[in-house]
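Minutes, project check-in
Item: structure for the 89-residue chain
Input as provided by the requester:
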Amino acid sequence: MITSFKKLFPFPLNYYYFYYYYYYYYYYYYYYYYYYYYYYYNYYYYYYYYDYYYYYYYYYYYYYYYYYYYYYYYYYYYYYFYNYCYFYY
């Protein structure tokens, strides 16, 4: 009985106990590390998303700015053209 027990556990039980806890804490810290980086990644992903929308609105704003500018020149061109024609008529 004792020999079979020794075959089953060649090292002292304290060794296995320590080994078990070592792997337990190793797993625990690995898990914690993984979640830390997961949330860290999402944090940066959120800010990346925020920047994306910021630039999206930035370009949207400039699109409307140039559109307004174009409309403005079109209006003045039409106005001067109309006055030019009116003047010659």
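Outcome recorded: The chain has a mean pLDDT of 73.
No further action items on this chain.
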